[in-house]
């Protein structure tokens, strides 16, 4: 099974999710998205794979979410993706992607939905 995790090693939830995948015998591709940011098309594709609007996988705490006014419904998916490209910290973590889709794994047990 091909598994990809959008990972921030400084995040305890992200580290726990990676450990859970490894405990299940999986060796996921680790995408350090803060070091190698996604482009807008990749952000939109990832959101589409979750089956939810991009807004649901944005991180508010510790990011410029509030100062940019991203809670305002006026922003399109494309505009939100552009903000994520400019500020990768806006992408919440960890997000795990498999052939069954993608999930923001908060709580980490959500990963089970796509394994």
Written description of the protein model:
α2 crosses α3. The chain has a four-stranded mixed beta sheet, with helices on one face. β3 and β4 (101-104) form a beta hairpin. The radius of gyration is 14 Å and the shape is globular. The chain has a single domain, classed as Glutaredoxin, CATH 3.40.30. It has helices spanning 12-23, 40-50, 77-86; strands spanning 4-6, 29-31, 95-98, 101-104. The model has no long low-confidence stretch (mean pLDDT 97). It is an alpha+beta fold and 115 residues long.
Summary of the model, kept short:
By secondary structure, this protein is of the alpha+beta class. It is built from three helices and four strands. The mean pLDDT is 97.
The topology string of helices and strands comes to EHEHHEE
Q: Give the strand order of the largest sheet, numbering strands 1, 2, ... along the chain.
A: 2-1-3-4
Average of pLDDT: 97
Count of DSSP H/I helices = 3
Low-confidence stretches: none
Principal-axis shape equals globular
Gap from first CA to last CA: 8 Å
Keywords:
alpha+beta; 4 strands; globular; 115 residues; 3 helices; Glutaredoxin; 4-stranded mixed beta sheet; 29% helix
List strands and helices in order, with pairings:
Elements: E1 4-6, H1 12-23, E2 29-31, H2 40-50, H3 77-86, E3 95-98, E4 101-104
Parallel strand pairs: 1-2
Antiparallel strand pairs: 1-3, 3-4
